[in-house]
């Protein structure tokens, strides 16, 4: 029997968590309602909550309350894979194209799509609609500024300042999305036949660009927590003339890894000394769960000898449909601008102006705060579900941001083989081979927590794991 | 003294035209109001109008009425220029970039911009706004179909059928504009170092793409009326391995020339026999003044051995701001699709869906009919103004569609030299050198009739000609 009131409350809440009444990611009742329901003081409630927190059962989130934490039975992290040590051209298979055109939605069950309403999107549409109605003839007859609307570049400049990146609007060039920015970055830094180092597992969009541009790839193995292996990159630089290196310092797909900011300086230093470009894919940069924003690599670029080209977009953090991205190319700004003009010429003005207002008036900040909370909750649900149901067979990453986790299966599994049969059932598996130019990661796959883990998605997940683990029923993932 | 009533009416109208009360491009009063005002029968009015028509003073336009024609004192056409006969790399100067980024609006006096209201644009905005409000979360979370919204491709397929081009929606790929389509077309047909033939004077956007992609150019001289010289192209094919040829069969910028449809078959035949690609810039295809629509070259492509890649857009015919274009690449469709995906990934869905509805519901057809009438009137005004004020010094083309005319100055003139000083006065001259990779056409310039010829624009035109003709005050243009 509990001796004190806080002990009683603590045990009550523990029981609710263990019984599943409160699930991973759920928010606990507010302090005020706990006071009322249990007829105790605020100090007593806080005492109980702090004890649950120190037992790692719940987690406080600033301004949001207390949430049920992912339980301690977490899986070990995925292991790294040896990457080939010589540059090779990139050749992307037909299945790869099919998967890419389907898989970019980050949803294993597209048919079940029933998005939560995001109130800020309505506001964004309202702002864009208003801009569309203003001077429509003027907009129809004239292109926007070559580098994109100044109002949008100003809003982005202020937004990036919150992430410790100081960049003038004059040095930002608007593009039609992060993919467009990455394309421009590789076009202006490389010639066909050049060698590019890419963090591995890599974003498939970059591999496709490299194939089309006739670039050779060196995959540099990445850690599921700390991203690209800087030692390995340094080693490879002594062997090959590397022109550029593509990295995703914040929550890179598929693993959700982050390059520790204390490594930024040495990476930039390496680029300066060896004269190669660091192409930073920052598309997930706004999706850090912790309230402390994560600075982009570009924030620690060498001001005397800029080497980092930042590519960003709102596609993952606000809307895939706006087709608004940006490139911050430092000394190569004019080259980037030129390449933007010959590929895209301009961007719709109403979308840029509406988005500029949306950012400047604080709607984007509010949207991000809600979205991060939702994603964190969905990540917790996914991790808890995997741990409870498949934890004995698989390993997976546990990122603190972004949209996805990287799952390692037993060695004998082949996730690509399962792709086609699952596809017929309407289940979209994203096989690990998609993230390598060398067919690595056959026994890996990417799972996303961009969608809520509904009962239908749970069933799809089970079907997926039954299918991919079939071949290796008796083995387990080491 | 006129003996008959129709003679009296005829002389009245003639007097109004000669005195300037009715100006070139103006619409005559309706038949009904002429009957009423002059107290005559409809037969009498028609008799008078037919006589004015046979005197080439007025022109009937189907369903629109009678308009004052451009007077007979038209200028001779610009002469052709000898183009260099060996392939050369393209190198675009800094001034070229500046002009390009400013000049794409087709307006010599951007500050005077006061667009007529185009009622259909309001309808388009309404349709796009409605699509934006439908399922915003769904749109924010998912990309469109890889080739673009099927509804838009269906609407375009039906629209192009009116121009005698039969193409299934499955063979159309949506892009972010004609510039993007041309970029894709050159990327999928050529490798760096390849030689591309381009109709000369050429669209500067194509020259810029070729510079960036490291392609060599052969300029094939074009006639201001009938476009590319097919004989010259044939001759060049015997000397150089030409991979592609860029043509604008309908109202190409800057001259507004049209390849006669009876030459289409021999051009396609040439491409089949010599195995090169015909890249058709069809951006002005919807801007033919005559009611008979002009068929694209693609409509006469060889079905067994497709050689024509059609690039189109609504930027010039509806709105530059939508950033919607398309590419119809025949056997290279999948390659084009792949290139679209790696550069742009997707297009905003609400814009595509709104535009699809706009076309399908007949608004686009109505808009085009109004726009063509307006452009024809503005062309007539510009031609009349030039003829009356500068006709002794210059030559110019008289296209039956598109947005601009090609003006030839006396040999000693240098339009590029005048560019900078006029720029300071807010006047935007588009120098002829912009349309050549070899610095040809120094004594040419492009004038647009996309804007109404207001008093301010007339003053700007006078200032422009005073400036460019200054150096050669005593010479005239032969």
Automatic annotation (TrEMBL), chains A, B:
<dbReference type="InterPro" id="IPR004839">
    <property type="entry name" value="Aminotransferase_I/II_large"/>
</dbReference>
<dbReference type="InterPro" id="IPR036388">
    <property type="entry name" value="WH-like_DNA-bd_sf"/>
</dbReference>
<keyword id="KW-0238">DNA-binding</keyword>
<dbReference type="InterPro" id="IPR015422">
    <property type="entry name" value="PyrdxlP-dep_Trfase_small"/>
</dbReference>
<keyword id="KW-0663">Pyridoxal phosphate</keyword>
<feature type="domain" description="HTH gntR-type">
    <location>
        <begin position="3"/>
        <end position="71"/>
    </location>
</feature>
<dbReference type="InterPro" id="IPR036390">
    <property type="entry name" value="WH_DNA-bd_sf"/>
</dbReference>
<keyword id="KW-0805">Transcription regulation</keyword>
<dbReference type="InterPro" id="IPR000524">
    <property type="entry name" value="Tscrpt_reg_HTH_GntR"/>
</dbReference>
<dbReference type="GO" id="GO:0003677">
    <property type="term" value="F:DNA binding"/>
</dbReference>
<protein>
    <recommendedName>
        <fullName>HTH gntR-type domain-containing protein</fullName>
    </recommendedName>
</protein>
<comment type="similarity">
    <text>In the C-terminal section; belongs to the class-I pyridoxal-phosphate-dependent aminotransferase family.</text>
</comment>
<dbReference type="Pfam" id="PF00392">
    <property type="entry name" value="GntR"/>
</dbReference>
<dbReference type="InterPro" id="IPR051446">
    <property type="entry name" value="HTH_trans_reg/aminotransferase"/>
</dbReference>
<keyword id="KW-0804">Transcription</keyword>
<dbReference type="InterPro" id="IPR015421">
    <property type="entry name" value="PyrdxlP-dep_Trfase_major"/>
</dbReference>
<dbReference type="GO" id="GO:0030170">
    <property type="term" value="F:pyridoxal phosphate binding"/>
</dbReference>
<dbReference type="InterPro" id="IPR015424">
    <property type="entry name" value="PyrdxlP-dep_Trfase"/>
</dbReference>
<dbReference type="GO" id="GO:0003700">
    <property type="term" value="F:DNA-binding transcription factor activity"/>
</dbReference>
<dbReference type="Pfam" id="PF00155">
    <property type="entry name" value="Aminotran_1_2"/>
</dbReference>
């Amino acid at each position: 029997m509990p001796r004190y009131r806080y002990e009683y409350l603590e045990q009550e809440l523990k029981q609710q968590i263990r019984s599943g009444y409160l699930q991973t990611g759920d928010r606990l009742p507010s302090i005020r309602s706990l006071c009322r329901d249990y007829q105790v003081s605020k100090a007593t409630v806080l005492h109980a909550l702090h004890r649950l927190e120190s037992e790692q059962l719940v987690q406080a989130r600033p301004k949001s309350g207390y949430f049920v934490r992912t339980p301690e039975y977490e899986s070990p992290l995925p292991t790294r894979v040896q990457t080939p040590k010589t540059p090779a051209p990139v050749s992307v298979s037909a299945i790869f194209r099919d998967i890419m055109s389907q898989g970019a939605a980050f949803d294993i069950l597209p048919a079940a799509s029933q998005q939560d309403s995001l109130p800020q999107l309505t506001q964004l549409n309202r702002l864009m609609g208003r801009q569309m109605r203003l001077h429509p003839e003027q907009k129809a007859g004239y292109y926007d500024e070559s580098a994109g609307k100044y109002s949008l570049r100003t809003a982005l400049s202020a937004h990036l300042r919150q992430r410790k990146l100081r960049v003038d609007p004059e040095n930002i060039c608007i593009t039609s999305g992060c993919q467009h920015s990455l394309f421009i970055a590789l076009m202006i830094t490389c010639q066909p036949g050049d060698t590019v180092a890419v963090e591995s597992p890599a974003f498939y969009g970059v591999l496709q660009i490299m194939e089309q541009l006739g670039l050779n790839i060196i995959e540099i193995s990445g850690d599921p927590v700390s991203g690209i292996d800087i030692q390995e990159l340094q080693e490879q630089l002594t062997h090959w003339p590397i022109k550029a290196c593509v990295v995703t310092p914040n929550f890179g797909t598929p693993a959700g890894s982050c390059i520790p900011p204390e490594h930024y300086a040495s990476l930039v230093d390496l680029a300066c000394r060896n004269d190669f470009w660091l192409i930073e894919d920052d598309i997930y940069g706004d999706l850090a769960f912790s309230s402390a924003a994560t600075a982009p690599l570009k924030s620690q670029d060498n001001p005397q000898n800029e080497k980092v080209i930042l590519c960003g977009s709102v596609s993952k953090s606000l809307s895939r449909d706006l087709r608004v991205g940006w490139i911050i190319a430092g000394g190569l700004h004019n080259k980037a601008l030129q390449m933007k003009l010959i590929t895209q010429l301009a961007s719709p003005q109403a979308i840029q102006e509406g988005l500029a207002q949306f950012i400047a008036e604080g709607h984007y900040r509010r949207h991000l705060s809600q979205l991060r909370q939702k994603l964190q909750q969905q990540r917790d649900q996914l991790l808890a579900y995997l741990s409870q149901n498949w934890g004995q067979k698989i390993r997976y990453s546990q990122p603190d941001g972004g949209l996805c986790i990287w799952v390692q299966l037993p060695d004998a599994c082949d996730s690509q083989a399962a792709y086609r049969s699952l596809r017929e059932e309407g289940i979209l598996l994203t096989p690990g081979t998609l993230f390598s130019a060398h067919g690595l990661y056959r026994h890996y796959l990417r799972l996303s927590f961009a969608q809520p883990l509904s009962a239908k998605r749970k069933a799809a997940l089970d079907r997926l794991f039954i299918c991919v683990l079939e071949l290796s029923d008796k083995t387990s993932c080491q």
